[in-house]
Design brief:
- It is built from eleven helices and six strands.
- The chain has 249 residues and is of the alpha+beta class.
- A hairpin with a 2-residue loop joins β4 and β5.
- The longest helix has 21 residues.
- The chain is globular and about 45 Å long.
- The two termini are 31 Å apart.
């Protein structure tokens, strides 16, 4: 129904932070709340107090840039070029790992089938709550809905955040790309492989990347979330362990 679609769209944009829910009718206040009450304390308390960070300003800048680029693959060299005093790729990789552990931002590695080939790959950035992405990009809800490319990244990021946040300890999350072919998320866990493509558009076209991936990795089960597949609201209502189990039983 229209009402449930609007509620889902609001959840995707605002990200479901309980403390901020009362402010969503006043988007400027909501954005300020996310920035001042959630982002700054999370970085300052959770990360800077837990670990010795040589470049706290770099960590904050990487976080903001990462949220703006959420849903996109970006090379470490390109990130280095956009950050002041960035040091080297090892620092960026370490900071992304810390932010992933703190539930803020993940750098999802490329799936290669062999571990030694995964480390140097360009990460796919994923804000671990889409409210962070919305607060930092400056789009209003209506502007976000109107920009189809951006809305697609927001939907994909909400799926990525759900996968990352509900994955069990022994579950690994990747993306896959080979030339122009790509798959949004590869989930490896319980000795199973699940390949997920997110479709946020109105028109459904079969995703070519999924076919190529499942031909290459025969153990993988393909899955479409969104248009033409499992409804987005249904996917987001169950932890990723259930989808891994459900798709192989």
């Amino acid at each position: 129904s229209g009402a449930s679609f609007v509620a889902l769209a609001g959840g995707i944009y605002f990200g479901g932070y309980p403390g901020a829910a009362s402010l969503i009718k006043e988007e400027n206040r909501w954005t300020n709340y996310i920035r001042s009450s959630l982002i700054h304390p999370n970085i300052e308390k959770d990360i800077l107090q837990m670990t010795r960070i040589d470049k706290p300003a770099l960590l904050k800048n990487l976080f903001e840039l990462g949220c703006i680029y959420s849903g996109q693959m970006i090379s470490y060299n390109k990130l280095l070029g956009q950050l002041q005093d960035a040091g080297n790729t090892t620092t960026l990789r370490d900071y992304l790992t810390l932010m992933g552990q703190a539930g803020l931002l993940a750098g999802i590695p490329k799936y290669a089938g062999q571990v030694h080939r995964q480390r140097g790959s360009s990460p796919k950035l994923n804000a671990l709550n889409t409210g962070l992405m919305s607060a930092l990009t400056g789009y209003t809800f209506d502007e976000a809905r109107a920009d189809r490319s951006y809305w697609g990244r927001l939907v994909e990021s909400s799926v990525g955040a759900h996968i990352y946040n509900t994955a069990e300890d022994n579950t690994k999350v990747f993306y896959w790309r080979d030339g122009d072919n790509e798959v949004d998320f590869i989930i490896e866990g319980r000795r199973k492989l699940l390949a997920i493509e997110v479709k946020s558009g109105q028109k459904f076209a079969p995703p070519k990347g999924l076919d190529i991936f499942t031909q290459k990795f025969k153990a993988a089960t393909p899955m479409i979330v969104g248009e033409g597949g499992i409804p987005l609201s249904e996917f987001l209502s169950r932890p990723v362990s259930e989808w891994l189990k459900h798709n192989h039983d």
